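Honest question from a wet-lab person: if I give you the sequences of every part of a complex, can you actually get the arrangement of the whole thing, not just the pieces? Trying it with mine:
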Amino acid sequence: MSAPLRPVLAGNWKMNLGPAEAARFFGEFLAVWQPRDDRSVVFFPPAVSFAASREAVRARHDVRLGLQNVHWEAGGAFTGETSAGMAAEAGAELVLVGHSERRWVFGETTDETVKKVRAVLDAGLVPVLCVGEKIEERRAGRQDEVVRAQLAPVLQAVSLDEARSLVVAYEPVWAIGTGVNATPQDAGAMHAFVRAELAARYGHETAAAIPILYGGSVKPDNAAALLSVEGVDGVLVGGASLDPHGFAKICAA
Ligand code: PEP
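Yes, you can. This is the full assembly:
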């Protein structure tokens, strides 16, 4: 599966909206959001709300769905986990990998993100690889080094052909759920850095084709400014994606 059309407007519901709430959300969102062929709209509901979400968007092929996490193994004794193959069978098209909450709340390592990205690609899905530095790393001027260390092992494991199915989300940890978003200048600099890392591995043409999303306290009132930054190919939205009207405004930005 190839990467979605840019700009990509993606909502990560995290551990919010059960099946009934997901159905209610889509009832309201789809009433105000009309299909547009100049952008992609994607939602990452909780796994238990995936079937209800899929049913709710059945008639709307412009809305794509993904899972927030998968395990790298195909199946077996891994209580509580979901495989990439199961995600594909359920109708997911994309999977978040290495979200900062997975890394810093659940202790997910970069080695594990590599295995997850491989599993997602092998299942024919699009991995959305999340990278980003913590506040103390930014204060120490180490953001490039940190993001390179998160990115490089994954890129080594993804071939040139497969790179066209990759999406990267730059999400500074200090901006996630804090109400403090990166300035357009900071976001632009980091997106240029990520693009250069992609180009060093795959060449400029392929690097230009890989969507790089910004995530971190994107709201209806700052989405347009962030989306207008050169190199920002979309947004990954947490909290503000839970409000159907607010998220529709972000999708229209
Ligand atoms: C996220 O969950 O990826 C995120 C960016 O969250 P928020 O928009 O709430 O900062």
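Two things worth pointing out. DSSP finds twelve helices and eight strands in the chain. The beta strands are 8-12, 40-44, 63-67, 94-97, 126-131, 167-170, 212-215, 234-237.
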